[in-house]
Design goal:
The chain is mostly helical. The chain has a single domain, classed as Phosphate transport system protein phou homolog 2, domain 2 (Methane Monooxygenase Hydroxylase, Chain G, domain 1), CATH 1.20.58.220. Helix content is 87%, strand content 0%.
């Protein structure tokens, strides 16, 4: 490997590390948003919203470096596919963080009403599952781990099942049918959708692994 090749590889590795960093920021957003929602923590919700600026900045930094690499150096086929698809993966991660901002805003919309069983447990399980899937998806992408990537579809079934349970619970009348109860049911159904979409983003990230590794999808 020539000195030029080593420099190019170092820059690609930096993109890899940047993507891991972005994945970590998004995983933290999922954890924090879930915790804020289940506990009614308004301060925590505001912190999730504020921290989204760091996610956006990291995404832009990754995209800028990818575009510089694509426009200025010759990459081998695998590196070229990795850098190009990283643009897509960074977008998926940033969108996941945006969904968590929506979850955090729901904390304010539900205030001062506390969530009642089994809602907090279902939300906590959804948040934990999405966090696990994020870590698996990002690691599979940066490592080219096709086996882990292939597992994401089955893993995401758990999020879909929890989504369905939460929506059924939210939309099933239980005692009060006043305006506040209806509004809470709508907010919970939307939150369930946010987590489900976050899970879908991890599956999309994993779907790029075969293309990067083999050139085929």
């Amino acid at each position: 490997m020539t000195q030029t090749d080593e420099r190019v590889q170092a820059r690609v590795d930096d993109v890899r590390l940047g993507l891991v960093r972005l994945g970590s920021l998004v995983s933290s957003a999922v954890d924090a948003a879930t915790c804020a929602l289940t506990s009614g923590d308004l301060v925590g919700a505001d912190q999730v919203i504020a921290d989204d600026d760091a996610v956006d900045a990291q995404r832009h930094a990754i995209e800028d470096e990818c575009l510089r690499l694509l426009g200025s150096v010759a990459l081998d086929p695998v590196a070229l596919r990795f850098v190009a698809t990283t643009l897509r993966v960074a977008h998926e991660l940033e969108r996941t963080a945006d969904l968590m901002v929506n979850v955090a805003r729901t904390v304010w919309r539900l205030y001062p009403h506390a969530l009642v069983a089994p809602v907090p447990v279902l939300l906590d399980r959804m948040g934990r599952q999405v966090t696990v899937q994020l870590r698996v998806a990002v690691n599979a992408f940066v490592d080219g781990d096709m086996a882990s990537a292939a597992a994401l579809g089955d893993m995401d079934d758990a999020v879909d099942e929890l989504h369905d349970r939460l929506v059924r619970h939210a939309l099933t009348p239980a005692g009060s049918t006043g305006d506040d109860s209806v509004l809470e049911a709508v907010h919970l159904a939307l939150v369930a959708r946010h987590f489900e979409r976050a899970g879908d983003h991890t599956v999309t990230i994993a779907s790029w692994v075969p293309f990067v590794t083999t050139g085929e999808r």
